[in-house]
Design goal:
Chain A: Residues 4-78, 132-206 form the Lipoyl-binding domain. Chain A: Forms a 24-polypeptide structural core with octahedral symmetry. Chain A: Residues 100-120 have a biased composition (Low complexity). Chain A: It catalyses: N(6)-[(R)-dihydrolipoyl]-L-lysyl-[protein] + acetyl-CoA = N(6)-[(R)-S(8)-acetyldihydrolipoyl]-L-lysyl-[protein] + CoA. Chain A: Keywords: Acyltransferase, Lipoyl, Repeat, Transferase. The complex is a heterodimer. Chain A is an alpha+beta fold. Chain A has helices at residues 81-94, 105-125, 214-222, 228-235, 266-275, 293-311, 315-320, 339-354, 367-382, 389-403, 449-464, 538-553, and strands at residues 3-8, 18-23, 30-31, 36-41, 46-50, 55-60, 67-68, 73-79, 130-136, 146-151, 158-159, 164-169, 174-178, 183-188, 195-196, 201-208, 357-365, 409-411, 418-420, 426-428, 430-432, 435-437, 440-441, 478-482, 501-505, 509-514, 519-532. In chain A, strands 17, 20, 23, 24, 25, 26 and 27 form a seven-stranded mixed sheet that branches. Chain A has a four-stranded antiparallel sheet with strand order 1-8-6-3. In chain A, strands 5-4-2-7 form a four-stranded antiparallel sheet, with no helix packed on it. In chain A, α10 crosses α12 (538-553). Chain A is globular. By secondary structure, chain B is an alpha/beta fold. Helix content of chain B is 31%, strand content 26%. In chain B, α1 runs parallel beside α8 and α3 (49-67) runs antiparallel to α4. Chain B is globular, with a radius of gyration of 24 Å. The relative contact order of chain B is 0.12. The chains are: A alpha+beta, B alpha/beta. Chain A binds chain B through residues 259, 261, 263-266, 269-270, 273-276, 288, 290, and chain B through 337-340, 342-344, 401, 403-404, 406, 429-431, 433.
Amino acid sequence: MANVTQVKVPDIGDASGVDVIEVLVNVGDEIDVDDSLIVLETDKATMEVPSSEAGVVKSIELKVGDKVSEGDLILQLEASQASGDDASEDSADSNESNETEQTSEGSSTEDSSQQASSEAPSKKKSSGGSRTEAITIPDIGDSEGVDVIEVSVKEGDEVEQDDSLIVLETEKATMEVPSPFAGTIESITVKVGDKVSQGDQIGSMKVTDDADDGSEDESSGDSSGQQVEKETSVKDEPMPKSDYKPAPVTVEPYERREGEVIHASPAVRRLAREFGADLSKVKGSGRKNRILKEDVQSYIKFELSRPKATANTGAAASADLPEIDFTKFGEVEEKSLSRIQKISSVTLQRNWNLIPHVTQHDEADITELDNFRKSMKEEAAKEGVRLTPLAFIMKALVASLKAFPTFNSSLAADGETLILKKYFNIGVAVDTPDGLVVPVIRDVDKKSVYELATELGEMSEKARDKKLTAKDMQGSSMTISSLGGIGGTSFTPIVNWPDVAILGLSRNQVKPVWNGKDFEPRMMLPMSLSYDHRVIDGAVAARFIVHLGKMLADIRRTIL
Amino acid sequence: MSNLHAQVVVLGSGPGGYNAAFRAADLGMDVILIEKYDTLGGVCLNVGCIPSKALLHTAKVIDEAEEMSAHGVSFGKPKFDIDKIRDYKDGVIKQLTGGLAGMAKGRKVKTVQGYGKFTGANEIEVEHDGKKQKVTFDNAIIAAGSRVVDLPFLPEDDRIVDSTGALELREVPKHMLVIGGGIIGLEMATVYRALGAKITVVEMADQMIPAADKDVVKVLEKYVKGKYENILMETSVTKVDAKKDGLYVTFEGKNAPEKPQKFDMILSAVGRRPNGDLIDADKAGVEVTERGFINTDKQMRTNVPHIYAIGDIVGQPMLAHKATAESHVAAEVIAGKKHYFDPLTIPSVAYTDPEVAWVGLTEKEAKEQGVDYGVGKFPWAASGRAIGVDRKEGFTKLLFDKKNNRVIGGAIVGVNAGELIAEVGLAIEMGCDAEDIGLTIHAHPTLSESVSFAAEVYEGVCTDLPPQRKKK
């Protein structure tokens, strides 16, 4: 008996509506536990979603461009008797976050059998030189739940590509949904009055397409209980990365036509006045172009974020800075920024613009610490731990955070309240080939140096393997950015909002230090502490860095 | 001389003043309210809107009882106890002003009785019964209102009154002359006529209530024509001889009687003027115009940044509901809110019989401004409800911008027009177009239906009237 398992999106932190940017498997693929299935992109990083099960991919339930959240169905696996059992046992034992659907097995198979019967007729038709394509709602802007006001075709109709299939009415306009292909309508599953959103399937059609290859039909033919939509996912080659474009900024200053009246209710006018928003520049998204409160809010948000948007990568940047033809100076090569670079450029620009930064520099004497670490290195290695200075520095940093609670805080959105954190999670900036990511090590105060060193190693590996989830990169108290392995004497790290401070570490050096009698060789670690001056005063920051220096000079102090 | 200080001092306790004081107090400021009379409420509550409406109610019941005789119900000739009528009106005033005093107390707003005048940029001197008191302030809100315009040629005589005198209802004259065919004069004419006076109205302009559209006012004029003794349009009074047996009035103009006419009482209701000239505003540095107005910005701030002005004293229209809206803005701005006085429209209502109400642009104004407008007019003769109450003289008219079919104005004449106009005001503020109003289901049978019908007339889809010419 075929054992069908549903593989769902695991816990990906708080992120919801995350973009699917790559689908790595095809129907018919045989996959193992932990094989990457899809690649998601959050606002922090990209992550690969591993399979919780082993088996043969029976159907893929999403495609590039979809937005997914925890618990959404990714694909259905047909596990061979033996491997299926193994997989489910494995996952039950090892990973509590895996959604193997063991408990709801009965209901899910019931679902699929229902689908089987309802989809069966259309299935039969798809044999021969033609294929069946799902008809989905294309990009219709931000509109969700748009009314279907007309269905222009019925089953059996022959349509040309771009013929109107149904008519939608949004708040702004009516629009026709064009046929994506030429062919015969097999089914239309929406009716007038239904509400649809981008990506919703509204029916299917038979498309005669000679470029088709039969193998896919075969593979889908195995699984009679398969939805038409799933077949189309098979057709969709994983989209090349370079084709992916981030969603453009939707709010833009609106050029009102000559004589066009502003349509805004008294409360909206009041809101606009309060923020000094010029209503003539706000586009109304309400009925009959009425400007809604939300429109004013997004306009204000847009205006506030403008420096960020214009300093952003891509076309927007050229609005402020002139485009330069570099080829006239010599040979050049264009290379697009990595996805992570693009994302971090926005956050870095925002943080740099919005946070008044001050950087305090100091040196910590880590001679004793380094001697101790070296003396423990072998012992640690026996335990399988690679003992790095960073694990000790994290411990010292937590001791200083405890002494200076404002460093472990965030400024509330109203800018008037400080949120003091009672947890001690330290973010560690990790350089990966794709760019900078900041995984967070949790509860540093409760973990031993060994544990921290081990976890650091794991996190770095995860980062380099693109396995970090959004959750792995949230909830830091403060962040450490270490360039010690490379060099340099000091630098100005940018505060990793919502943190209020970041500790930058440069390469330690043995320096002659005056001990009152003579110069002594001491190992000195250069520290650069950037902080949000709205929250932290200069004097406090100086005290903090001195305190941290003391902790590092004698790590025993941290246990006092 | 004792000294008082408050964050906010409000000069005048009319609808503008008391609302400003209460709003400021609700926003956590300490407030002193200065009022020259011993009751709060200003003209509106004591000698204006409220007492006139109490008397108009009395008049309405008298008239309706009489109209009933045509429906087969006779009550006989009414007997008037003028003292009791006055008591009822005074009771209404007392209840409302007493309520205000209680609300002031509840908000810890300190009231200071006396005549307040500025003595400096942060100082008002209040005089009461010869005693003077200094009140200093961080912010002041001038809400000192307006007063009746006096006609210089009118002699001093008990029988010649202004609106305040008329509301005192000392007696009901046999023949009464109302100088001024504006809202106030016509409302008082309505009251005195119901109580038995023979009314003559004299107005310099060619229509009553000159601000309203002619077609609207015409309904009123037609309705009162048979009820009043005389209506003298485009005519003015040049001379009044106060003799023992009566007031002999000489007229001049288009409809002037040749000989002087004798009246038992004259109501002078030719308008109101702002009190900007009575409060020594210059001592605080506040500029007052020649006509006595104080100019403000849209946040009700005068040329002196911490002194605000609201209500009649800042300009037309001199209406309580405008003052109230301005009062909240002033108090909120003082409290640091970035609020503005930013209405699209302010409704006007004459509580005559029939009532006349309008909001937004009048046709007159639309023409002046060169707006390409269209009209939807629904005559109440086609309203079941209006016919049922035997008042089918009225109509509802809406003005639409032809470019986008949005409602830009409305006028209603008929019973309850003052209540009905509210919907049109909301429609204008919300930017409704004809379709929005027409598609909003109104209860049947009501007079309010006439608003949606008027919109349908504009659209050419009204089925409550004989077939219309197809639009466009």
